[in-house]
Amino acid sequence: MAQSPPRPRVLIFPLPLQGPVNSMLKLSELLCLGGLHVTFLVTDHIDARLRRYSNVQSRFHSYPGFRLQAISDGLPENHPRGDKFLEVFESMKVHTKPLFKELLQSGGGGEGGDRISCVIADGGLEFPLDVAEEVGIPLFIVRTISAACLWVFFCLPQLIQSGELPFTGDDDLDVMVKSVPGMERYLRRRDLPSFCRSGNPPLHAHLKAKLAATGASLPDFSNSLWEEDRFCLVWLDDQPPKSVLYVSFGSLATVTRDQLMEFWHGLVNSGQRFLWVIRQDSVAGESQVPMELLQGSEERGFVVYWAPQEEVLAHPAVGGFLTHSGWNSTLESAYEGVPMICWPYFLDQQVNSRLVEEEWKLGFDMKDTCDRSVIEKTVRNLMEVRKDEFQRSAAQMASSAKTSLGDGGSSFSHLERLIQDIKDKSV
Ligand code: UDX
């Protein structure tokens, strides 16, 4: 009897950061459900954290075609990758690239005799494109940022050519961006990606070099890389509906001790309940989180090092999210219908926060301010004064998100098309 041909094996390669790892693991699961075999390739540092803190291994057990595979990023184990992620990217270009090439050339060695027939790589990693082309394997690029922000990135060469970038100073941050049609409607200079501002010379140089080189005109579920504190869910169970502001600045952002204190006073003075994620490495210059801040407010405030964020946002007690506007956090909040206060840290987050306030009316953009009285007032506005208005618009957004993900919805149909494309290219 003729044997059926092996199924296409897709190699998925995310950036070694929590946000991209999370979203691309979800994509992997969907592709497995669509009948594909998946190799999820991560740096050895991420591999160790996933094996230790997430339930990826047990969760993917039901997909025999799924394989978690590690590749070296070329850095010593004790390198502070979170603080110095640009060094990680540089090292990967040198050390990971040849290993990646060997892996593709060898076919990836699936047990059922299958070979890697297609690569899906994060667009933030540049070398997989060159390698896949060299080896002759089709490659899809995934961007784990919003389409709106990707458009802004694509327009950067145009902004540089028109002389709008780089800024000469940070004085006119409220000037609308003029040289790209459509942008003048809602984007100010302060809403452009953080590296567009002065005081960021290496990235400016990088941008210019890139422009010159291209000559371009234009639940019971965890993917966590840290140990989740699940006690906060129990604490949330005791809080009234939509009464708690969830506060988290994602996996990379750091704050100074002064900023931490401003947030603390702002939150306490707002009189609202809050659940605050303070990562152990998130206070710049401090090795310890100042726990004495908690004294006297224990019943209203709960602090953890890392939370099961998606479960927190889905909890009925949560009524708002003070976020750094990372794209995963923004999507997770929109999906659960939780209004936001945005305090963007860098990269795409400046754009996302503007969209949240100005375009989607899902909350407030508090960028470039870190003052206890502003924080207090903004929190009150979101959680009390304008609560009904924001809860309504967030509920509408959540309903559209769910429609697009459901059978026949736009996201659902795009995913089906992607799976078909992968199968076609793997013949
Ligand atoms: C950042 C950016 O924000 C992102 O937009 C950019 O493209 C790359 O770098 P990150 O800081 O990781 O990523 O933010 P985000 O994209 O929001 O992802 C954070 C992820 O960690 C979310 O999926 C969130 O659910 C999870 N998380 C966060 C937790 O599970 N627990 C926490 O306590 C905090």
UniProtKB/TrEMBL annotation:
Keyword Glycosyltransferase appears in the UniProt entry: yes
SUPFAM superfamilies: UDP-Glycosyltransferase/glycogen phosphorylase (SSF53756)
Enzyme Commission number(s): 2.4.1.-
Gene Ontology molecular function, alphabetical: quercetin 3-O-glucosyltransferase activity; quercetin 7-O-glucosyltransferase activity
Keyword Cell inner membrane: no
Pfam families for the chain: UDPGT
Coiled-coil stretches noted in the UniProt entry, renumbered to this chain: none
Keywords: Glycosyltransferase, Transferase
Protein family per UniProt: Belongs to the UDP-glycosyltransferase family.
Protein name: Glycosyltransferase
Organism: Salvia splendens
